[in-house]
Amino acid sequence: MTNRLKLYSRQYCHLCHDMLAALDSLRDEFAFEVEVVDIDAVPVLTKKYNELVPVLEAGERELCRHIIDLAEVRAYLSASNQ
């Protein structure tokens, strides 16, 4: 089963682009999919996340926000791939 991560993002957010690039660098180590959600396309998400993006979630669990926590993401993906 492939892990699914959700990245709440904005098109003009450089931190969001940085987090996505960092996630892409993990693809050689782990099998996972990333759904990128543009919060500006959904008013309720704009209100909820606004200046908090990027936010990376796995299911209901928040893995990190603003800057990727590679140790946290690796730990989650390692545990999920077992």
Describe the structure.
With 82 residues, the protein is of the alpha+beta class. It has a single domain, classed as Glutaredoxin (3-Layer(aba) Sandwich), CATH 3.40.30. Helices cover 35% and strands 28% of the residues. The chain has three helices and four strands, in the order E-H-E-H-E-E-H. The chain has helices spanning 14-24, 43-49, 70-80, and strands at 3-9, 32-38, 55-58, 61-65. The chain has a four-stranded mixed β-sheet, covered by helices on one side. The N and C termini lie close together (10 Å).
List keywords for this structure.
single chain, four-stranded mixed β-sheet, alpha+beta, 35% helix, 3 helices, 4 strands, 82 residues
Summarize this, please?
With 82 residues, the chain is of the alpha+beta class. Helices cover 35% and strands 28% of the residues. It is built from 3 helices and 4 strands.
User: In sequence order, what are the helices and strands, one letter per element?
Assistant: EHEHEEH
Structural class: alpha+beta
Radius of gyration: 12 Å
Mind describing the biggest β-sheet?
A: 4 strands, mixed
Which fold name is given in CATH as the topology? Glutaredoxin
Distance between the termini: 10 Å
Instruction: Please tell me what the overall shape is.
Output: globular
Number of strands: 4
Please name the fourth-level CATH homologous superfamily.
Glutaredoxin
